[in-house]
């Protein structure tokens, strides 16, 4: 059961990352740093599990020379 909940939470966090990237409603997401999306992703993860810890950061978009990208995915773990 915990694994299913965790999978759903990860999917929700990925959705948050995608939503953050497209908040302006544009066809192309405004690039942002992974760090700038970390707070909202962590808050969402901690609403799922108080001991949630970031274990993986992913990106399937191009990362610009300044370190920004249109989308980031944050994977959290809870014991």
Can you walk me through this structure?
The protein is built from two helices and four strands; from the N terminus they run H-E-H-E-E-E. The protein is of the alpha+beta class and 79 residues long. Strands 1-3 form a two-stranded antiparallel sheet. Strands 2-4 form a two-stranded antiparallel sheet. Helix 1 packs antiparallel against helix 2. The two termini are 13 Å apart. The mean pLDDT is 79.
**Number of helices, counting only DSSP H or I runs of 4 residues or more:** 2
User: What is the oligomeric state here?
Assistant: single chain
Structural classification: alpha+beta
| Sheet having the most strands | 2 strands, antiparallel
N-C termini distance = 13 Å
Mean pLDDT: 79
Summarize the structure.
The chain has helices at residues 2-21, 34-48; strands at 32-33, 53-58, 68-69, 73-77. The protein is an alpha+beta fold.
Give the secondary structure arrangement, pairings included:
Blueprint: H1 2-21, E1 32-33, H2 34-48, E2 53-58, E3 68-69, E4 73-77
Antiparallel strand pairs: 1-3, 2-4
């Amino acid at each position: 059961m915990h694994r299913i909940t965790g999978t759903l939470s990860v999917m929700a966090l990925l959705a948050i990352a995608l939503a953050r990237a497209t908040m302006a409603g544009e066809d192309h997401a405004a690039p942002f740093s992974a760090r700038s999306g970390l707070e909202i992703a962590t808050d969402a993860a901690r609403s799922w599990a108080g001991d949630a810890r970031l274990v993986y950061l992913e990106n399937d978009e191009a990362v610009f020379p300044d370190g920004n990208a249109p989308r980031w995915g944050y994977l959290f773990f809870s014991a």
